[in-house]
């Protein structure tokens, strides 16, 4: 049997070396649906979800009780070995790098089901060194298991230090597939005063200016509209820029208020408009929301195709429905057309 060397996968990048821009697998991942592999009832539903969701993720980290960590790991191995995932990707979220479980997660999963795992999500990533550690370990385990396809890595942005280091995290390894926002851990780490898992907050708002009376005095007691702001705008925008710079994918993350499907859709749409390609799903009903929101609408695709057709060789400017379109808006339209084509494949 010919064994691959760890070097055949990915040599760790020299410190400070720019990461190569590369094509990462373009399979869609609008919804990353989390399941608890230690929960037999939940695990039994996994085969029935294949084909209805882009990614199924066996969660080993937070939300899995300490006493169930081994059962979750073993449950994931069992499901992966006995299931053909077809068009659906299989991901896992391993325990954090400072936990007592992570080494066993990696040394168990890669030899057992490394051929089935598409992406490993690494939580609480603080800097490039965390990714380089996982990259190196994966290369060794993959070589030992004689795997011929490298497992990709996805980092969760959920510490203040991680946000500060987001660009180096994205470029830390050619395995980097993408980043997700982890709003709950990030809020705690930053000492934000919200107890919600993602989403907005009614206290984070701006208020309309007060009306003035006939003497020009502001009537601050008058009723005034308030506008809720997005707590996560800054971090998502920063994450999207870092991902675009390194050619990897940005994702929203968890939206914990499962019952509020309307606010969930709004939050997902904000992320889509800002550049994210997908999000997490914590309940089957969030899959449908994500599939809808992270696919361009029929109207947007039709408009984008009209602009592409009207722009001919791609230079100059044209007027469509009273609006100016040029080389730059053509590029915007191509983003939507290319996404629609990828999703239709
Ligand atoms: C997800 O892991 C989060 O902390 O929000
Ligand atoms: Mg977290």
UniProtKB/TrEMBL annotation:
Molecular-function GO terms, alphabetical: lyase activity
Cofactor: Mg(2+)
Keywords assigned: Lyase, Magnesium, Metal-binding
Keyword Magnesium appears in the UniProt entry: yes
InterPro entries, per the entry: Aldolase/citrate-lyase_domain (IPR005000), Citrate_lyase_beta/mcl1/mcl2 (IPR011206), Pyrv/PenolPyrv_kinase-like_dom (IPR015813), Pyrv_kinase-like_dom_sf (IPR040442)
Gene3D superfamilies: Phosphoenolpyruvate-binding domains (3.20.20.60)
Pfam family, one: HpcH_HpaI
Residues covered by the HpcH/HpaI aldolase/citrate lyase domain: 32-196
Protein name listed in UniProt: CoA ester lyase
Taxon lineage: Bacteria, Bacillati, Actinomycetota, Actinomycetes, Propionibacteriales
